[in-house]
Specification:
By secondary structure, the chain is an alpha/beta fold. About 40% of the residues lie in helices and about 20% in strands. It has eight helices and ten strands. The chain has an eight-stranded parallel β-barrel with strand order 1-2-3-4-5-6-7-10, surrounded by four helices. Helix 6 runs parallel beside helix 7 and helix 7 crosses helix 8. It starts with a strand and ends with a helix.
């Protein structure tokens, strides 16, 4: 039972109200709100308004997409993001695993990075939230080997991951990554890209059904439209529901 939803950063130029209205019309029940434009962590009034408007439309906030970067953002700033997530009604926060690929770290940089991850995991346990790393190029989780090394050093039920396919890697590589991390994955971002080209999600139906096999009972969120138009959300939402069954 996957939960189909939307990542708000898909439509950075739209207001929260416009996004909620579009998600409701498309039959999506959850939204991940981004901290950069729609739901800044220091705007209490807006966070409460978003939660209330979502509630009135039968939508819940499944996760909070922050731009907290491990090793770059001061550690104490995580508390503001945690507070914001709770105001939105979620205990899942997306954070970023540094600012360069795993193979670019020196041994001493790795040790400092792992120590910072452990500190954040401890904070998450104390605050009863789950911090999740995006599997993304330009971060320590750019590839499966980096992910595996990191999670062998930091073992916490409050320190998990997102997953999404890497449009610059092969189907086989992405499938292997998905299978290896499924047990620690809290949210999936869904799109169908090849390199820099974007395609309708339905064209990747077979690939996505294979990707999703190892996962269970988590949100699968549409991220960006193939044509960047909010009017395409209903079509993409129908495609996602067809894929997840």
């Amino acid at each position: 039972m996957f939960q189909p939803g939307l990542v708000s950063v898909s439509f950075r130029e739209k207001s929260p109200s416009e996004i909620i209205k579009a998600a409701n019309a498309a039959g999506l029940g959850c939204i991940e709100w981004g901290s950069d434009v729609h739901a800044p962590c220091n705007d209490t009034q807006r966070l409460i308004q978003i939660k209330d408007e979502c509630h009135r439309n039968g939508i819940h906030c499944c996760s909070y997409g922050t731009y907290f970067r491990i090793g770059q953002t001061p550690t104490d700033e995580i508390y503001a993001y945690i507070r914001a997530a709770k105001l939105l009604g979620t205990n899942i926060l997306r954070i970023w695993a540094g600012n360069k690929n795993s193979g670019e770290y020196t041994d001493s940089e790795k040790q400092a990075f792992f120590a910072e991850c452990a500190t954040l995991a401890s904070i998450a346990e104390q605050e009863n939230v789950v911090l999740c790393l995006e599997c993304h190029s330009g971060t320590f989780t750019d590839c499966l080997s980096g992910w595996t090394e990191l999670f062998s050093k930091v073992d916490s039920h409050c320190f998990k991951t997102y997953w999404q396919p890497n449009q610059f890697k092969s189907f086989a590589e992405n499938l292997a990554y998905a299978g290896a991390v499924a047990h620690k994955t809290a949210v999936i971002h869904a799109f169908h890209w090849r390199n820099t080209d974007k395609f309708p999600l339905i064209e990747g139906k077979c690939e996505w059904q294979a990707y999703l096999k190892p996962f269970q009972d988590i949100p699968v969120l549409l991220e960006f439209m193939p044509d960047n138009r909010i009017e395409s959300l209903t079509f993409e939402a129908d495609a996602l529901r067809e894929i997840i069954g």
